Amino acid sequence: MSMMSLMTELPKYWMDGAVRALDGQRRGLSDHYPLSEDPPGVTPYEIVHESGKVKLRHYAACGKAHRTPLVLVYALIKRPFILDIYPGRSLIANLVRQGFDLYLVEWIPPSRADSWRGFDAYVNQDIANAVRAVQRLTGAPKVSILGYCFGGLLSLLYAALHAENVKNLITLTTPFDTAVEGNPLYNLESRFTGQTIDLITSVYGNCPAWIIRGLFTATAIVHHTVDKYVALYRNREKEDYVEFFDLFEQWMAGDVPLAGRIFREITRDFFQQNLLIKGEFHVGGERIALENIDCPLLNAIGESDDVVFPASSLPLIDHVGSADKRNLPFPSGHIGMVVSGAAHKHFWPQVGAWLGERD
Q1: What is the CATH number of the domain that holds 132?
Q2: Banded model confidence at residue 119, pLDDT cuts 50, 70, 90
Q3: Which of 16, 42, 122, 239 has the most crowded CB, counting CB atoms within 10 A?
Q4: Which residues constitute the domain of residue 145?
Q5: Would you tell me how many other CB atoms lie within 10 Å of the CB of residue 29?
Q6: Collapsing DSSP states into helix, strand and coil, what is residue 334?
């Protein structure tokens, strides 16, 4: 296949991407983030609680439910429909089929008025209120928590500060040690000077979504500009591939701003100074003592993850107080851990069995 034929087949995808990028910059200057409607998911749900910047979705278990409810904490910087994107590729559908009563923390994008929000607001207010809501609705004294990427980091902080509420903890592709060599995202974050951070937040209030998306694009520019379109061209005859690709592109363009304070905190304290692994990270004036985490911990790692390198996640289990803890590597990339057919067939049944044994 020549590059000319690829350009002929796929020009609209580049045009759509350019339009979305410009729209992202426009949103960054506005006071309110205009939330577009997500594509319809695979699994029905209801909103059972809303407070702060959280809508709590409830997905009812299929058949007999496990005793302990499962709270899924998603990342702050993307829309969550990647978790329920397509039949056969839905993490949420997979988990409810395994009998888990699932509660998804859906983050409401911040407006400029929310620029004050840092880790304290998201962990000690939003996640804490969501967990209390699940406890109240179900009568369960403790919940299991599954955190994905940035959501894994938030879940880890919550478990350290509120260990009495957590029965089991699963951290999925979660960054921990930011001093690992060769990770492009960590290297880019380390180059933000204090003046740059102050300029971004003084102009926009928050870190605009188009800046965050630019960081991720810069870490894998060949994939974002060429590889995925080559894959689309090669798989264009498959019945569902083009439809899935279009949904995936909508998710990739589902950029969400990051509140100004948490942008400063994660850039300075986490990525640049690596304070969490040093035991010097503070949330709400309280030091994060990972040794306080004593619940069973499953640390799931994508062996081909180019966003959160395995070397960044692996040391986590050495810093928590849990007696029951393990790393669970799987041969997949960062996003493949939640959407690939192999992960749904081989990885998530392992996670379900691990939770079931500790229910």
Answers
A1: 3.40.50.1820
A2: very high
A3: 122
A4: 3-357
A5: 11
A6: coil
